[in-house]
Structure formats: structure tokens, C-alpha cells
Amino acid sequence: MSIDITGLPSERVVFETSPLAELGMALHALSEPGHHPGLHGWATAAAASLKPDLADRMSEAEFLWRSTFSDVFMPFAGVRGGDGRTGATLAEDLDALDRLDDERFVSAALEFTCSSTYGSVSPSPLVDAAMRDRALDLAAARGPKQTDFARRLLADPGSVRAWLRRLFEDCDQAFFADTWRRARVQLASAARHHGEVLRRKGLAEALHAVSPALTLETSGGPGGARTRIHADKLADGRTSAVEPDVGAGLTFVPSSFGWPHLSILHAPGWRPVIHYPVGAPELPGPASVELLKLRMEALAHPMRMRLCRNLARSPYTTGELAESHGITAPEVSRHLTVLRKAGLLTTQRRGRYVLHGLDLQVVSRLGSDFLEGVLR
Question: 323 Cβ partners below 8 Å, 6+ apart?
């Protein structure tokens, strides 16, 4: 996932808080508590406080925040002629949702139908019959709730927009207003701190402070050097912060509900947004997607799994492992090399012997690394 920022002035990179974006993450945490083990207490209390009517209405639209992170929660990034700034209150963010033109609102609300076309420019289903039929077919494949929502959306975008606004306002009254009052102090502090890092130390340091999964890359080419922000995610996509319809710029939005998700808004023509978690569990830095793949491939081999059984219990020499498993020392060395390249071994010298052991801390992190990698 990459964002082209070639030639973008630093003052066009801003850190902002967004009540509506945080409401979207809170709704996601209610729908997918397994993604957010640290929020079980909050999710249980919030769910118990919902009145049946509100719970039913949330269920009608939960695919907007459960299976995808719909851009309807970041309308400030898509208002044509806007400056990409978030609202100070939920009402102001919802006013930006009202200002989105129908084509952009519909495309954002239909993201759940097919994420593979998210980054491509295509005709609006509001004016193109083929795209309309395709959107309805894709919605039908996901279920009756999605089908009904898509039909209502395409028939009368204004009424669905108003329905969503009332839903979000009722969520605010039911549980989110108190949640936001507690979270906004932490989020405002994070936004100020990261903005100060950007001003004093530059974008590369600010990216590292935001997330180890973000890096700054510069590459040459026929058109000259290009500068991009790279996000280490399993998802693919690219966008530009230099030429969106809403004006050049990039917005960072912190989230207290976000971990382990690092979301990148990269819809064509919209201002790019990096929605990043703060207050994550105190764990070592996340492994890169490539390193996670390397480690899982290393452990998938039957012989290396058997070797790990020994190495997890006590350090062994190559000769001891060869004798224990009935294979040659060079074969053991080859397997140990694979485990070492994956960062799974510890090595210590005792006299003329080299002892190998399994790095239990790294291995114990594999489950959470995998979960964070696929959800990031």
C-alpha cells in the first residue's frame, strides 16, 4: 500500500481527530470483539445499553463497519473543494457527510460489495446501468440485508444518507458521547505529539512514531525521483496525496479503538487518510508481513517442527540434533539456517561447542503477529 507524496509541502500533512471516524471503529469493535480483546469490557457494557430498536437499525447497516471500514466515516476527505479537515464535533463530521455529492456518497456506501474495485475509477452506478446491475448482483451475493440496502441507496441516496445520520446520532446519544469524551483527550494529545515530531524531526520520524508499519521511500525513474509512504499491509493499493479532487494533502487520524487495524483511505480523487491506532498493547514492534511469512514457512516443514521440539526445551548442538533425529549434520545445519534466517533461533557458544535454542519469546508472539498482520 503506497501514497505518492512527491513534492507535497510539509504543511499539507496534518494530524487531526475525528469523532465520526472513531465512532466507526467503536461500531466495528462492537461487531467484531474478537479483533479487539482489550475492549471486551467496553463492548459488553455498550451492547447491554442498546435499546432493541437501535440494535436492529445497527444490524441493518453493520456491513459498513464490520466487513469493511466504509469511507462514509471519513467524509471530510471526499468533499469537493474542501480542505480535508475533520470536524471538531460529531455534528460537524456529519455535516461533511451531508456535503458529499451523491456519487461519492454512493461509492463509499457500496464499498462492502467489492473491495477489488475500490482503487479504480469507474462510472457511478447512479448514471451507468451496467455498474448499477453489477452493484446489485454483488450485494445480492452477500445477503438480503445488503441487497435491500443497495436497492434503497441506488433509488434514493438522500434518504439513506439521512437515515445513516440519524443512526449515528442515536449511537452517539446511546453510548458514544461518553466514550468520545474520554477518548478525545488521548487522541488530541497523540495528534499534537505526532504533529510536533513532524515539525521538528521530519516526516520519516513522524511515520515511525505513528506506526512501525509505515516507512518513507524514495525511488528514481524517468520522471525523476518519487517519494512515497509505504504501509506494510497484506492489502494492495496506491494513491496520491498530490492530486486529489479536494486539494493536495494527507491527513493522519489517531484512534483509541483501532488496534490492530491500520486503515488507509485511498479512494481515487479523495484526500488520502491514514487512520492509525494509539494506546496499543505493550508488545514488541509488529513483524513485517514478509518476516511473518518467512517464519510461518520455516515452521511448516515437518522436520523443522520436530527439531523445534528439542530446541524449545534445551539448547542443542548440531551433532546432538543429527543423532537424535537420525539425519546428517549437514541436513540439520540446512534446517537451522532456515530457522535462523526467520529469526527463530538463539545461539550461544560454550567452549568449542555452538548451542542452538528456540527463541520462545518470538515464537509466542506468532499468534498475535499473525492476527495483527492479517487485520492490519
Answer: none
Taking phi over 0 as left and psi of -120 to 50 as alpha, with beta for the rest, 26 belongs to alpha
Residues shown for the chain = 376
Rounded to an integer, what distance in angstroms lies between the CA atom of residue 326 and that of residue 232? 41
Look-up of cell digits 454512493: 106
Q: 275: helix, coil or strand?
A: strand
User: How far is 101 from 79, CA to CA, in rounded Å?
Assistant: 7
- Give the model's pLDDT for residue 97: 96
Tens of pLDDT, residue by residue over 53-97, are: 999 999 999 999 987 889 999 999 999 887 878 999 999 999 999
State if pTM tops 0.70. yes
Residue closest to 266 by CA, chosen among 298, 289, 235: 235
Cα(308)–Cα(243) distance, rounded to whole angstroms? 51
Q: What is the CA radius of gyration of the chain?
A: 24
**3-class state of residue 59 by DSSP:** helix
